[in-house]
């Protein structure tokens, strides 16, 4: 059962995670977000009770 042999796949997994963590991730995180969140003012709405016909 070659799936249980971790020798080639462990190295590939470790190298891919190192590549992502050390090279790709800092490049992605250096981009500036263009849509900054803004504070919204909370508006209160007046609710009216529902006119139930049987009450």
From TrEMBL:
**PANTHER family assigned:** ATP SYNTHASE PROTEIN 8
Q: What subcellular compartments does it reside in?
A: Mitochondrion membrane
Query: Which segments cross the bilayer?
Result: 6-24
| Major subcellular location class | mitochondrion
Protein family (similarity comment): Belongs to the ATPase protein 8 family.
Output the Gene Ontology terms for molecular function. proton transmembrane transporter activity
Protein source organism? Prioniturus luconensis
The protein here is known as: ATP synthase complex subunit 8
Q: Name the Pfam families for this protein.
A: ATP-synt_8
Give the GO terms filed under biological process for this record.
proton motive force-driven ATP synthesis
């Amino acid at each position: 059962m070659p799936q249980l042999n971790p020798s080639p796949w462990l190295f590939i997994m470790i190298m891919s995670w190192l590549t992502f963590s050390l090279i790709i991730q800092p490049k992605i995180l250096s981009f500036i977000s263009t849509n900054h969140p803004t504070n919204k003012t909370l508006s209160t709405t007046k609710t009216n009770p529902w006119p139930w016909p049987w009450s």
